[in-house]
Amino acid sequence: QEQSAKVLVLIHSDNGGTYELAKEVKKGIESYKNVEAIIKQVKKSDNPKLKNIPIASVEELITYDGIAFGSPIYFGNISTGMSEFLAKTTNLWSKHALEGTPATVFMSAGSGAGKELALQSFWNSLAVHGMILVPNGISGMENIDKTIPQGNAVLGTTSLVSLNNVERPSKSERYLAELQGKKFAKVALALRKNKVIENDNKTIIKESKIDINQILKQKNIELPSLPQPVGNYQLFKKSGNLVYINQVALKDGKIVNPGKLGIDVNEEQVKEATRVTMLNIISILKEATGGDLNRVKQCVQLIGTFNTVDSFTKHADLMNTASDLTVEIFGEKGKHTRNTQGAYSLPVGSSVSISAIFEIE
Ligand SMILES: Cc1cc2nc3c(=O)[nH]c(=O)nc-3n(C[C@H](O)[C@H](O)[C@H](O)COP(=O)(O)O)c2cc1C
């Protein structure tokens, strides 16, 4: 089966000059067999030329096989809009999420003052991400019109829009941008093949790039503040890469829905207590990972104990509340082995108690 690759052309543009170049870059990318490109912008624009271009999210960056970045030049630098967007990528950065992804840059300039500096400054940010930077070198130089100033530069194409003796981007600038796209597509596709081989070898687990904090936010799951120990024990204990945590349904210093199922509380109330208990565990787990739940490699085991009347047998139903929550938050990594049991009584009147073992990085 033939491999295909998907490239994002990510731009900021005020007046549309960068967008004009982006269209040429896209054309070049798509002239390469089996590579498709999509243009998105870093933020909303009211400019009629730009207002229908979709907005990219930070999270989606990891889903592309390459990213061509385009920005206006501001004072020999990338534009504020592009800079603001890149400032939001620190989470991806700390997880090495863009490492090894190819990147190339192009810019719309006024006079072109400081264009090499500006392209270089673009590279600075992307190099910190560990992206593989693809320059233009002097490719295409033999074919451009040298009778007028052109935005050619070795790190990427620029367009000199304030030199308005000809329409900008000039024909030569458009040609260079298209060529840049084509050369970039070749790299993105080649590295894509590499990535697929690594995937097959299970050295890259895509799931590891999913941000747990984002998932918590999207699903409106709020972690409680850390419960306090009510005896001579630790909230968690690490042994090697394993973290051990045990909790009951304590919330704001009080037990939620206390008592025995079948006498004091019903199944729904115990399920609510089970969710509170599991959230306590995840809050403690966050503490154990130094505040970064993305370090959780897997949930190894959960043990749920429920205070029920003798005849009760549906412990598994109750415990699913905790199991479902764990899988909802951690995805595949949240799947675990499990033991559920009934008890005659539980500490501080809780209807549920959970023991958890997690593996962290
Ligand atoms: C704050 C600011 C700083 C700028 N600095 C430079 C510069 O250093 N060099 C340059 O050639 N053009 C500079 N320009 C001009 C823009 O790069 C130029 O207008 C560009 O084409 C805008 O791209 P756009 O059409 O995609 O918005 C600057 C513009 C602004 C607003």
UniProtKB/TrEMBL annotation:
One of its GO terms (molecular function) is oxidoreductase activity. Pfam families: FMN_red (PF03358), YjgF_endoribonc (PF14588). Residues 7-184 form the Flavodoxin-like domain. InterPro entries: Endoribo_LPSP/chorism_mut-like, Flavodoxin/NO_synth, Flavoprotein-like_sf, FMN_Rdtase-like_dom, RutC-like_sf. The keyword Signal applies. The keyword Signal applies. Keywords: Signal. SUPFAM superfamilies: Flavoproteins, YjgF-like. This is NAD(P)H dehydrogenase (Quinone).
